[in-house]
TrEMBL record:
Residues covered by the Histidine kinase domain: 450-665
Transmembrane segments: 20-43
Domain of life (superkingdom): Bacteria
Catalytic activity: ATP + protein L-histidine = ADP + protein N-phospho-L-histidine
EC number: 2.7.13.3
Keyword Kinase appears in the UniProt entry: yes
Name of the protein described by the UniProt record: histidine kinase
Organism: Enterovibrio qingdaonensis
Keywords: Cell membrane, Coiled coil, Kinase, Membrane, Phosphoprotein, Transferase, Transmembrane, Transmembrane helix
Amino acid sequence: MKLVNKWRQRLRTMVRYRLLALTSVPIILTLLVLMALTVYWTLAYTWQSALAGVRADLAVASNSMEVLQREQRSQLHAIADSFDFQNQLREPTPDILSWAQSRADKYGVDFLAVYAANDIERLPLALRQPLLEGRERTFFQVMSAVEMDALASHLSDQAEIPLRNENRPETRGLISRSLLPLFDENGNLEWIVDGGILLNNSTDLVDEIRDLVFPVGTLPESSVGTVTLFMDDIRVSTNVPLDSSNKQGRAIGTRVSDEVRETVLLKGDDWVNRAYVYNAWYISAYKPIRDFNNNVIGMLYTGYLEWPLISQYLTNIVELGIGVLLTLLVSGFLVHRGAKDLFRPIEKIHRVVRLVRFDQDARIGKLGLDPEHELAILARQFDTMLDQLKQQNEAIRQNALELEDKVKQRTASLHEKTALLEQNIKLLEQTRNKLLLNEKLAALGELTAGIAHEINNPTAVILGNIELMEYELGRNADLVSEEMEAVLEQIDRIRNITRSLLQYSRQGGVQDQITWQHVNPVIEESVTLVRSGMKKHDVEVITELEAKCSVEINRHQLLQVLVNLQMNGIHAMNDEGKLIVRSEDWLDESGNPLGAKISVQDFGCGIANENLTKIFDPFFTTRRSGTGLGLSVTQGIVSGLGGEIKVDSELGEGSIFTLYLRDKIQSDNIASLKVVE
């Protein structure tokens, strides 16, 4: 990768290599176009030549079959003219059929039969008239096992072929058959000589045709020339190997591809193209085999493996590519060597330019060229320009130093005033926030203190009268003891409420100190305040207090946070519904206690997603009567306690605010608590 980037940089920046690229690109493009045309032409020519060759091979194989049939007829003529045959005819009761069957092997045929003219009815109707007219017939025919046994008892066994992957044998046979009519002295048909060969499993025959079609040295190395005889779409005689790689076995009993079968067997056309033959691709040619009725009953095939031809073609293309690459390398080397002396002065000028760019004092000087050379003139002008530029830079540098001193003096005083202003603005902001909070708490404290005082006075009167009534009634007081106890319980409840209001409204003193205590009592006190301050009694406040850990907290501020969160939840539910306050221990992943966790859950309107990031900002509120300071102050208090506050809300379903309070407050958090107060 580094080498590629290096040469890419050279091509972009160095004239020598750009010239090399400019001169090489036309050569490369020309050679690539020529190579592409060569590949296209040779591919087309090679393919057409291959198809023409396999078509010629098919013609040779077809002629070989015709020669075979002519020899077959010649054998029948030799039998008819033989002395033994004539002697058999002169016998008083000639057993000519048995004699003929015994002489089949001698004359090189698989079956031989001689029968009288009156047995002509055993032949198909299309063959009778030509024989009566004295015409010999040689043709291909598909026979059943019964028909073959009628000619020779061994033919059906010899013709049987196991069909691969079909679990059944093929019992029919493909026959090359010849009929020879013999006439008496009066010109009447007297005898019919019937003979032929069975083409099923005739491996010697297809091997002999293959040797004629594909002589040694006519095919590429490692290629395989093959010949096949088909009965319908079944290979009945072939030298196509079962394993094309190792050239082992014969694919007898396999079927031809569907595409070839449709073209040759169904349409009766020749096929010359590449075809998938059993387990490999071959350059193939197929020709239909017809019977005496001109019906297609089989095929003759010749072909050879495609891959060796492709391999040889690819080898030629690789050799051509190597030649082109060597040509490019040689031409590039010559261009590079020829341009070296020309671009050495240019490279020296470029080197000086780079040094000057890095503030180094360098000059081009003499290039060893004629003084009137364009590059020599350019070098002198460039050196002169560098001298002038150096003088101007010195003057500019001196002026810049003077200006920099003046700017430093002015900016120093400006920085001091800016820092002082920023500090004052920050103090003003903190003071304003503190004043707003103190004003709110002071008003609340004054209000709650007045309410508590006004409630305590009538409560004391009620309590005194109850005690007086109990004293006056004496023993009769037992009749209303339950009612009096109920009144006393309500008076205690009023006292607890007023006591909590007074503690909530006070600032400073013991209640503002940081103490180590449980959170559950503080939660219960906040719930008491909230219940007593609700305008309606349609809100059900449920507490689930399970926290056991003690935490270091400011009781007054935690009470303020809890009351604020609960009142927000009640407002979100429009003063009706269910509010759940929970507490539990805050544990880490290993189960070790970190502090306490308090959650306040309402089932109100919820908070929109776009507002979740704004609810803790000062003065942000969605209520017309709200100030927007409640949650901001709450977050400040919780942060001062060393904890966190998180919110989980779904619009229309409700919200859950969760406080995480640590068991120990850090020293820096204690300082922040005092600021929040």
